[in-house]
Amino acid sequence: MTKNAGQRTLIQLILLVGAILMALPFLWMVSSSLKHELHIFQFPPQIFPNPIRWQNYPEALANPNAMPFYVYVKNTVIIVIVREAAVILSASFCAYGFARLRFVGRDIWFGIVLATMMVPYIVLMVPTYVLFTRLQWIDTFLPLTVPWFFGGGAFNIFLLRQFFRTIPEELADAARIDGCNEYAIYARILMPLAKPGLIAVAIFTFIDGWNDFMGPLLYLNSPENYTVALGLALFRAAVGGMGSAGGRSRWDWLMAASTAMVVPVILVFFALQRYFVKGVVMTGLKG
Amino acid sequence: MSMIGQGLSRWGLNSPAARRNITGYIFISPFILGVLIWFLTPALTAGWLTFQKWNLITAPRFVGLDNIENLFRDELFLQSLKVTTVYTLVAVPLGLVLSFFIALLLNTRTRGISIYRTIYYLPSIVPAVASAVLWAFILNSEFGLLNAGLRAIGLPKILWLQEPEWALPALILMSLWGLGATMVIYLAGLQGIPDVYYEAAEIDGAGAGSKLLHVTIPLLSPVIFFNLVMGIIASFQIFTAGYLITSGGPQNATLFYVLYLYRAGFLHLKMGYAAALAWVLFIIIMGLTVLIFRYVGSMIYYEDTR
Lengths: 287, 306
What we know:
The structure holds 2 protein chains of 2 kinds. Helix content of chain A is 68%, strand content 0%. Chain A has helices at 5-33, 56-61, 69-100, 106-118, 125-134, 142-145, 154-165, 169-177, 182-193, 195-211, 214-219, 228-239, 251-271, 273-285. Chain A is globular. Chain B is mainly alpha-helical. Chain B folds into 2 domains: 2-49, no CATH class; 68-299, MetI-like (MetI-like fold). Helix content of chain B is 71%, strand content 1%. Chain B has helices at 2-10, 16-49, 66-73, 75-106, 113-121, 128-138, 145-152, 164-176, 180-191, 195-203, 208-235, 240-246, 257-267, 271-295; strands at 52-53, 61-62. The longest helix of chain B is centred in the N-terminal third of the chain and has 34 residues, at 16-49.
């Protein structure tokens, strides 16, 4: 598409204004996290905090009003690692069946995969909770990890199936002639070749696990088992001017804790950006 | 081993076709088990729960259709339905149009385009809780960024989170910050449109507006449709912002459906009533999806009809 200079300038201008609006909440968060408590209330607000108060971070992340943050991080990391292993093994195994094998009822089952993607999980929230109560799994990490071993989520099966289908069949055929069975083809040929797809799934799983609020809110009761998301919510209740620590809101601390929660997600995004985009394209379009 | 082989062949399970079927089902068995345990069991439980009065502690009691009858007498249920519907009717179209527009701009070849794409996308991966805490601060009437901006251009402050008529618009505004998730799917779709279509349109004398209307939108209609369906499904499940920022208030102005469901189930321990609420939500979302497929689905242009 060719555009004249006037149009280009206009596009640049709109993009710039929009980008500033999108970036502003981030800048405000980071800037507030480094302000002295009194400067939070200043008008006009300081953009660059003066003086910069790094002390907000240790004060927020090891605060006497809440659990130390590292406990939440440790819990979340355990949950995410187990979930990653579950999703990568289980989703790829199922996806191989759907992408590469022919058998009676395959398309019906794949239809069920797509259907479960459409069903809002909220609908099953209450009976699932009842199920976990019966299993005596409440206040453990089991509800947040074990279900992922069973297919690893319809969305991930779908994504990996799409990915497996882009890998040429000839490689597997050659291996079959050499006497390889399907399990060996899956493990030794498809999995190594599907690395970009698996990384995309791993990124989504990390972000979902790190960001998940509803799951931990329902299933975890004791603060020492809380994840970062739940811990941050608890911290807000404690120092957000509505809780036990008196009426004063400590936005400086809350912004420091929020920044700490956001940073890992952003880092993962920048480190693995190209896989990320690939995954989005795979899921959004090749349906 | 040979005994197993004999057994298999007696049942006709040793033919190549049968072996293929067995291998296939072994591969998808984790999913099948998952559906049975984590999907079918809860779904059946939900059906049973709907007719029970149960607080998780004492024994459940059969109450027939009481839970469903009570729904329509429950003002908070109706309020939560209203709040969620209004939110969906405003936030989803607004988000769809705005993210489409931004995707169009981001699909041009201008300077610094990849930086722009990143900036527009990033907010959508910010954890919902961090986003809620941040926006609670931004929307704060005394020291928030939004009112500081209004004051800077000489406008009076707005009590975003204290006034019933402003709370929902405030959360809709907040939802637009996350439009990058939709935008990036549009963008991927736009990049899949071959240049030759535009070139052909230009030869026919099409201007920018007519190219958008006759090339871009028809070719992108499956993606628009995908975003619409997913947007509505997600919108009806909104929870975190209402739970953390406004606690459903003021005066239940942001009492989202799922927030009310959550309270019924886990605050008031009315498991049967919560299950009935969940069924209604399921029927609404499925009904809407079917309607959209029926009336909007026919307007989709598919390039190749495989």
